[in-house]
Amino acid sequence: MTLTCTAPPTGPIVVPRALHRLEATPQTTHWGYFDAAMAPALMVDSGDLIHAQALTHHAGDDPALMMDDAMHRVWRETPESDRTPGVHIMTGPIFVRDAKPGDMLEVRYLGMQPRFRFGSNLAAHWGQLYEDLGARERVTIYELDEGANTAQALYAYDVPDKYLIPGRITHCPECDRQRALAGVRVPVRPHLGTAGVAPDETGRVSTVPPGLHGGNIDNWRIGAGATMYYKVQVDGGLFSIGDPHISQGDGEISGTAIEASLDVLFQIILRKDFSFRSPLLETPQNWIVHGFGDTLDIAAKEASRDMLTLLTDRGLSTDDAYSLLSVAGDMAVTQVVDGKQGVHMRIRRDMFPITRT
């Protein structure tokens, strides 16, 4: 049997009818949650472009370098008691007209530009080796070299108290700065750690664990040039973005990436011609599925099952798809620090003849 397409057919270029600007303000952000009952911050039509600000909740690790007046306003006007049950600042939600449960949102990420030349990594108490390394938290501030597209550690400092209040602001001029990672340069690859639609649940849903709605997937490949497909769970989708990063490794083992605010340009296209259970990623080279679970074993099986579905839905027999995944499917750990463990599986698109509509 011939496989004609390894995933939902990539749609044609859609000429946008409008370009929307969505700034991150106290009125357009929600801190730590998705909520199906939220009023939208923006309403768009299928195909519209959105230029949105995504703020890192770790900007307070060095507010002099990573915050501006507008961000200080978000911090001031969002009470600590309202930053719950998760930690991420989400911009949105965006209501897509005519989007109904079961439809798909095709989100084409077109550009991600760092807002400042600095970012922060926190070795946090939820990190994989926190107890092994003395049960202490440590911040490393990185500086971007835009010309070289790399980041280099500027300094580091230890934090005496656990990161328990989202958006904690420390006073780096008063901290004991230490030299870190001398001479080491990290490739910069801006991406969104957290984005997704509102789950069909009552009340606030934490941004910390990833799920079928998207959320805190933490896959560094969700950057400019990538397309994500999210299954709509409530009318309008109520799509939000947040948790911006400028670099992260698979695993994210210390607890965070290099957290840094981004300006994000993306296009949302409403798709009613196919459905897929879990967040699906398309890159120029690969199709990537995501599995989540309480253990890596469960997450790996979820990813395998969804990739099997992706291939069998497009024409392969179950036996052929299973063989192909073993000989050509690449499985890796996405992250181990978000409550739910994350595993992704990718398969190269150029192995198959692709038909486009």
Describe this structure in words.
- There is one protein chain.
- With 357 residues, the chain is mainly β.
- It has three domains: 19-115 and 190-280, Sandwich (Jelly Rolls); 118-187, no CATH class; 286-351, Acetamidase/Formamidase-like domains (Endonuclease I-creI).
- Helices cover 11% and strands 35% of the residues.
- It has four helices and 22 strands.
- Strands 1-5-18-7-15-19-20-22-21 form a nine-stranded mixed β-sheet.
- Helix 3 packs across helix 4.
- The longest helix has 17 residues, at 296-312.
- The radius of gyration is 20 Å and the shape is globular.
- The protein starts with 18 loop residues before the first strand and ends in a 9-residue tail after the last strand.
- The model is unreliable at 1-7 (pLDDT under 50).
- InterPro entries: FmdA_AmdA.
- GO terms for molecular function: hydrolase activity, acting on carbon-nitrogen (but not peptide) bonds, in linear amides.
- Pfam families: FmdA_AmdA (PF03069).
- It comes from Tanticharoenia sakaeratensis NBRC 103193.
- This is Acetamidase/formamidase.
Features:
9-stranded mixed β-sheet; globular; mainly beta; disordered N terminus; Endonuclease I-creI; Jelly Rolls; 7-stranded mixed β-sheet; 3 domains; 357 residues
Largest sheet entry = 9 strands, mixed
* Succession of helices and strands: EEEEEHHEEEEEEEEEEEEEEEHHEE
* Percent range of helical residues: 10-25%
What class would the helix/strand composition place it in? Answer: mainly beta
CATH superfamily of the largest domain: Acetamidase/Formamidase-like domains
Number of domains in the coordinates? 3
Which architecture of the largest domain per CATH?
A: Sandwich
Distance N to C terminus: 21 Å
Number of helices, counting only DSSP H or I runs of 4 residues or more:
4
Strand portion:
35-45%
